[in-house]
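Ticket #4471: structure export looks truncated?
Reporter: QA, pipeline team
Priority: medium

Steps to reproduce: submit the single chain below to the structure queue and open the exported record.
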Amino acid sequence: MNIQIFGKNKCFDTKKAQRWFKERGIKFQMIDLAQKGMSKGELDSVLKAVGGLDNLLDQKSKSYASLAYLAYDEDKKEKLLEDGTLMKTPIVRNGRQATVGYQPDVWEQWEYLLQAVLCLRTAFSVSVVRFSALYKIFLGKCCHLAKYTLFLYLLFDKLCSIIRSGIDLCF
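Actual output as written to the record:
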């Protein structure tokens, strides 16, 4: 997992999110929105993942009133890039996925999905090695068994590539 936590150092939920990932031994990168902020690409990715600008704006922020004068979403996005304290925190990003606020249930699903992916990758690599070994054994003994093993190997390899492409879409 490639976890980024965007937050404010004084935010209680941001500290809880950091603690949640530390307790599970998951590495993360902490970005203080008050000091650094987000890049335009990061903001676009987060907005897409969380369902729009309204879900990201912190109405309790001291400078929220400054957004009332901005009519267009593009202007509001520019203001968010200038002033990261206008965003609800923590914003936790995992590739194309993101959450706003303290949401350990969602993060736990990310963790389970990662464990499942790692198990599948291990199983696929072991199976490919076994198929190639069987093919080499049968090649010298019986032509029909060797052809059948090669067919199974190719079929299995195709299935693995389809599943891998689906897994890569998740991250």
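Status: closed, not a bug. The export was complete when the record was re-opened. Leaving a note from the reviewer for reference: Helices lie at 12-23, 40-50, 73-82, 104-141, 143-170.
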